[in-house]
Each structure stands twice: as C-alpha cells, then as structure tokens.
What does this fold into?
Amino acid sequence: MATSLSRARTASSASGSAVAALVHVGTAGWSYSDWEGVFYPKPHPRGFDALEYLSRYVDVVEVNSTFYRPVDANVARRWVDRVADAADFRFTAKLSKRFTHERDTAFTRAEVAEVRRGFRPIQGAGKLGAVLLQFPWSFRRTDDNRIWLDDVTRAFAEFPLVVEVRHASWAVPEFYAELVERGIGFVNIDQPLFHNSIKPSATATAPVGYVRIHGRNYRDWFRKDAGVEARYDYLYTPAELTRWAERSVEVAEAGAEEVYAVANNHYRAKAAVNAIQLKSMVRDEPVPAPETLAISRSRSSNTYSVTLPSGWTYRTMRPAGSRMKTTVPVGASSTSSPSVNVARPLRTM
It folds into this structure.
C-alpha cells in the first residue's frame, strides 16, 4: 500500500511540493540550558541569539513560557523582531495554564485581556500560527468540562485555536463535529499509551492543523516524582518519525491550509534533532542543520542518515502491562557520534 508521502509525491512533483509546503515543522521552546553544546554552539559567538539561530533550521517554535505566565506585549514584539530575517517563520503559543489546568474557579475578564494583549503583537505581524489549548489527561469529556472548553474557546476566538486533549473520552464524532463547526483545530498527538489515552491520529477540523509528538517515555510519563526533563527524555527512531511525517501530510491532505508539526521531547535538544529529521522526511530532501546534526540522503537507496550527538543510541523495551513495543534512548558507552541510517519506504508500507 502506498504511503501518504508517496501518494502526495507520485501524483505529481508539483502537487507533492505544494503539500509539503503546508507542513511547518519545529520545536516546543528554544530556551534550554541543556541544548548548549548539543544544538547551540558552545561557547556562543559574539551576538548569538538562540531564537534567531533556531529559526535557521526549523519553521516554527511553540512558545512554552506563555503556559506559565502571560507574555508582555513588548517581549512578544521583540520575539518577532528577532526572527525578522526568517520571513516564513511562525510562532505558536500555549495558552496559560490558568485556562486549562487551574479550573477550580472561573477565570476573569482581566485574565483574558492580559493574555490577549500578549498575543496580539505576534498576530499583528502575521507570525501567529496558532494558540494551543493543552489540557491534561485528567480533563475528561464531562458536561462540566465541555462547558469549560466552550467558555475558553469563546474567550479567545480572535486567535486561531487548536485543542489538545489526552483522554480517549474525547475521541467521539460529536466532539470533532463541534470543532469543525467552530473552526478550531484538533491536535494530533503522540504520547505513551496507557488506559484511556487518546491514540495517534491524522485529523483536520479547521484551516489550522496541528501535530505534537511528546515522546514515548513510558517509565516517567505518569511517575509523580518525574521532572519535566525526565518525562520528555525520549529520542524518536527514524522509523517512528516516518509515520508522523505521513500523518502530518495526511492532515494537510484532509483540508488543513497550514499544518504545524511540533516536537516536544525537548531534553538535551532531542526535539531539535527529531524536528530536523521530520522536516527532511516531509520535504523528501536534505535540509539545513547544525554541523553535528547534518542530514544526508542517499538517492540510490532512499535512505537518510543523521549524525546524532555523542553518546546517543536506542534500545527497545516493553512497557509494563502492555503488549506494545517502543524505544527509549539510553546512554552509549562510546564517545563517538553514531550515524543512524533511516530506511524510508517512499512507495510501500
């Protein structure tokens, strides 16, 4: 059976390029100290700007800091100015946790207004791809939660909205129909699959499509004492990424006018590594990358090769109580930089 990538490309090279152009690939966040010396140069050259540097290699960045506090409008304007040389670069931004996680009391008009003021400079510059409403797994499809979601989306209706839900109770036709009616995008996610976890998908419900890959760290995903670094410490194998490249294209083929595919496995720049790999797969060509992450393609064998940072490799494991097999990164004893060959099934699955 032909893959989504191959269908888009074999129909005609022009149409395949057009579909790929709709998919913008990037990372969740950019300000991480553990990216230094892995993705960012260390020491920094004079005048170094991490956001500008990242914009050379990816198409979009998902702003994480807005989840913890609303952004000041002047800070948002400076973000836009810092990527002025990347004309097609976009931001997506997470809505404050006040509206997604802190639901014991009703939000106020003042809280809504503060968030709006911060997002408007990005939107006014034509750089705001989407505002992400990320709800936790505990947010189930109950009557009260449906009302809450409706109130939040109406409060921020001036922005392109996408909704991420992680509990399987939302995976019903009525919910998708409601999103279509309101023009709100559905976030297709990859996450460790436990009981009642929403499963991987390629669904488009609005002009904005969204894909978000969190990693598959079963060991730490729900562990109470796991820090953010541990929970998102996961490196996707090329074979795992291939299916998400296909799903990203499928979202575009389903009618989304713009698709944002974001890697959230940010520990030690693994998101940046996987984003560059994913971008190369979607475009079916080598893409710019920092020297230590250089990607090349063999035309004769339809394989990609990416040089990973020192000490990275893969192993397989079976999560407890599950028949599903996945992979988690482990430290290699060697100090060399291994090269991973990516088998790319361009015509068959």
User: Anything to note?
Assistant: Residues 40 and 53 are 8 Å apart (CA to CA).
